[in-house]
Amino acid sequence: MKALLAIDMQKALINERYDLGDRVNNMELILKEFSKQSLPIFLIQHTSENKEDPFYINGSGAEIYPPFKKYGTEIIQKETPSAFYQTNLLEKCKAYNVDELVIIGLNTEFCCLFTAIAAYDREFKVAFLEDATATVNNGEVYEMQDLDIPDFIGTVLHWSGAIKVLDTEEYKEWSNN
Questions:
Q1: Which of 7, 67, 123, 176 has the highest CB neighbour count under 10 A?
Q2: Burial, 128: exposed, middle or buried (Cβ in 10 Å; 0-12, 13-18, 19+)?
Q3: Could you read off the pLDDT of 52-103 as tens digits, one per residue?
Q4: Could you tell me the keywords of this UniProt record (predicted)?
């Protein structure tokens, strides 16, 4: 069975401060598609015990982005970039008989990337939807002015040959076959 990992789609990252363009719309499109098919949707929520952290567990930044929360089958809290590390995600996947994971969310180069690799290491088939991941960072952060971070991460994962990298249109076509 296929499941969706919707990673860190939280108020701290999806807000008016960051222009994520159509990527948030693409995320919602995929959430709706999984919901329509009654497939499991794991909302991955980054949390912290540090009151100064934007993901402080009792702060508003840690909350799942309100328009997306209704799609969740389960909320899995994590404290590291990997949704598998010291969480019950693997057990939840087993309980739902999941063998294929589709990854969307934030930040592409951290939690989405780490989780995709961890899923592959746990022998899941993994599809990474490049245009349904986003980041609040830009090339300046990495001292590479014109770096398109989601495209770069998608290319690295694609070249690995281990993870299927698609955009939302390719995914719709691929998932219908």
A1: 7
A2: buried
A3: 999 999 999 999 999 999 999 999 999 999 999 999 999 999 999 999 999 9
A4: Hydrolase
DSSP E strands in the chain: the ranges are 2-7, 41-46, 74-78, 100-106, 125-134, 164-166
- Where do we find the tokens 């989405």? 112
User: Among all chains, which residue has been given the structure tokens 């694609």?
Assistant: 158
Query: Using CB atoms within 10 A of its CB, is residue 173 exposed (0-12), middle (13-18) or buried (19+)?
Result: exposed
Instruction: For residue range 149-176, list pLDDT tens digits in order.
Output: 888 899 999 999 999 999 999 998 888 7
Q: Please, are residues 7 and 111 in contact by the beta-carbon 8 Å criterion?
A: yes
Query: Do 133 and 14 meet the contact criterion of CB atoms below 8 Å apart?
Result: no
H or E element: which one contains 150? helix 149-160
What is the predicted pLDDT for the residue at 15? 85
Number of compact structural domains in the chain: 1
Residue range of the domain that includes 64? 2-175
pLDDT given for residue 20 in this prediction: 86
What CATH number corresponds to the domain at position 9? 3.40.50.850
Q: What is the pTM of this model?
A: 0.94
The H-or-E segment that residue 88 falls in is none
